[in-house]
């Protein structure tokens, strides 16, 4: 009795998660590149409105709009996945949207702020970090070219390598 409902719940959750990822990440990146533009301000206002409305009310609004006004589906009807997969996903998209919209708003806001923070970091600092990481990797790559012949050489090479990595990590 629980298993069929669990299957529907998992599908609904996956649809809401997919919508959240597919919509919020690109919009967050675009919004951050067009900072303080019309699109950014529109999304900020839209986010505040969506985050203030409970998901169940969004579901009721979507059901009234698309079910009663546009007559895309019959409200209250459920089609099983085994019966008709296309109709099943057609009926599940609106609940998935109502669950995903507040999460899209929050994720979009976080992606936008993260991208803006990364864009404002000092480029010189990034280049120094990139240089030190590349030097560390180069040291690891060149180690096999000079194989140590004795245990004493191995110890010295390990100490030398450790010191080089520590000096590069300080840079």
Structural summary, described in words:
This protein is an all-alpha fold. It contains 6 helices and no strands. Helix 1 runs parallel beside helix 4 (85-119), helix 2 crosses helix 4 and helix 5 packs antiparallel against helix 6. The protein is elongated, with a radius of gyration of 27 Å. The mean pLDDT is 81.
Concise structural overview:
The protein has helices spanning 2-33, 38-52, 55-69, 85-119, 123-142, 151-170.
**Largest sheet data:** none
The whole-angstrom Rg is 27 Å
> End-to-end distance, in Å?
62 Å
Number of helices, counting only DSSP H or I runs of 4 residues or more = 6
Mean pLDDT: 81
- What structural class is derived from the secondary structure elements? mainly alpha
Which key terms come to mind for this protein?
mainly alpha
Q: How would the blueprint of this fold be written?
A:
Blueprint: H1 2-33, H2 38-52, H3 55-69, H4 85-119, H5 123-142, H6 151-170
